[in-house]
Amino acid sequence: MATNPEITTTKCLVNGNWVTAASGRTFPVTDPATDEHLADVPDMGEGETRDAITAAHDAFPEWRSTPAPARAGLVANLANLMRRDEDRLAALMTAEQGKPLAESLGEIRYAASFFEEAARQGPSLTGDIVPASNPDQRILALRQPVGVCAIITPWNFPAAMITRKLGPALACGCTAIIKPAHATPLSALAIARLAIEAGLPPGTVNVLTADAETFSNTVLADERVRKLSFTGSTKVGQILMRGAADNLLRLSLELGGHAPFIVFDDADLDAAIEGAVACKFRNAGQTCICANRFFVQSGIYEAFMDRLARKIEALKIGRGSDDGVTIGPLINDDAVHKVEDHVADALDKGGKVLVGGERVKLEGLADRFYAPTLLEGMTPDMKLFREETFGPVAPVMKFDDEDEAVALANDSEFGLAAYFYTNNASRLTRVAEALDYGIVGANDGGPSAAQAPFGGVKHSGFGREGGSYAMHEYTDIKYVSVKIKPTD
Ligand code: ADP
């Protein structure tokens, strides 16, 4: 049994102070693997959310006029502190989120890399001097920070979803108020503590654990907030977009995905299997870019299914902090019910389970573990084909030709990530261009990188995180027209 993680704070950070809710209300944080109570965190209300907005608003003028290299230095400090404390932060993440410890460690490093990338990008952010038609005019396009940014994040990546937004926001000169997911606030509060240690001025980073609607309604109604960056479900993204209309907030929405994973006859089978397992079963399938629908060409079908089945059987399910575990619990009971519902619906419609297909009871642990599953005979009328399953289920459909595979892959309202495997260079180019997705992994089941543009199209949202692309999300362009006299 793992020891309890070190919890450095259960208070919220507002204006550099550690505070509780005025109402005294809290909500509990539990370990999804065991139901063990980890901590109680403040249930911050409307007033405290407004205090945080005031703090961020008041801190903005000085922060925006701090030279970009100095801002970047503080963001880099934060990255270094995350790396210094990576083991502690990983243990905390596994406790509140459930993912295997190795994955938590990977996420902490990935999260730190967003601060590092933002620290690189900030000082190199430039505007333009555009050639004018009139000899007495100079056209300047300046990039200026948008202002106070509200950041709302999900539970599946409790650290990285924050840093990929907060890093570029700070590096651009914005200040932030962050609301982490209910299930995973402890990682966010731990990052908040490191922000203070890193030397970020009071008010630049504020973290509130709060009821989602109270927080978002307060933020959307306050015209001092100029930007909302959200990662979560399409349904909530749509609610927030409607709510953002009154104050015409700038938005970045990274919403649901439903990734196709295509394996062509000419694929490198080893690479396709490795990619499939990593891409499908990371975080027990609870990621927005994980493969949800497998399309496998008839010539390679038998070999692929046989190899994938053996790989899935070798996955080890259990508590994330136990040695060698590769599949942790699902985040909550609703998540398990959704997976069960999708599998039952598929079986009703002619699907066949080859591996798994049921909950796994583990002694002394919560009833929240679902066996990694391989299912064949997927058809477009199944829920598995239409909705994001968010669980460790790999549904597979056989196809015959390239056009058919691309049409099936594009038959979704979502457009976040897509994957395909082929050794044919022309096909690689054709298919990459034809897939209606914001991210395409061509022979790559793990495309995420802090330098790369991450984001979707269609119902997967808009805006890009990572690299220089993120800097555009947190800056406005100001056009300055200078009239000059040709001579004095
Ligand atoms: P997930 O499936 O990842 O839980 P959600 O969209 O439900 O996706 O949640 C993502 C984030 O959005 C969380 O921080 C959650 O608390 C927040 N959230 C949920 N419902 C709302 C809402 N109605 N308004 C604003 N934020 C919300």
Structure commentary:
This protein is α/β, with parallel strands linked by helices. It has two domains: 262 residues, Aldehyde Dehydrogenase, Chain A, domain 1 (3-Layer(aba) Sandwich); 191 residues, Aldehyde Dehydrogenase, Chain A, domain 2, CATH 3.40.309.10. The chain has a seven-stranded mixed sheet with strand order 14-15-16-13-12-18-19, with helices on both faces. The chain has a six-stranded mixed sheet with strand order 9-8-7-10-11-21, sandwiched between helices. A three-stranded antiparallel sheet has the order 5-6-22. The longest helix is centred in the first third of the chain and has 21 residues. The radius of gyration is 23 Å and the shape is globular. Adenosine-5'-diphosphate (ADP) binds next to helix 7 and helix 8.
Q: Which geometry do the CA atoms define? A: globular
CATH H-level homologous superfamily name of the largest domain = Aldehyde Dehydrogenase, Chain A, domain 1
Unreliable residue runs = none
Distance between the termini: 81 Å
Strand order of the largest sheet: 14-15-16-13-12-18-19
CATH first level of the largest domain: Alpha Beta
| CATH topology assignment of the largest domain | Aldehyde Dehydrogenase, Chain A, domain 1
Q: What value does the Rg take, in angstroms?
A: 23 Å
Number of domains: 2
The percentage helix is 25-40%
Discrete helix count = 15
Largest sheet, strands/sense/barrel: 7 strands, mixed
Secondary-structure-derived class = alpha/beta
Q: Approximately what portion of the residues adopt beta-strand conformation? A: 15-25%
The small-molecule ligands in this entry are: adenosine-5'-diphosphate
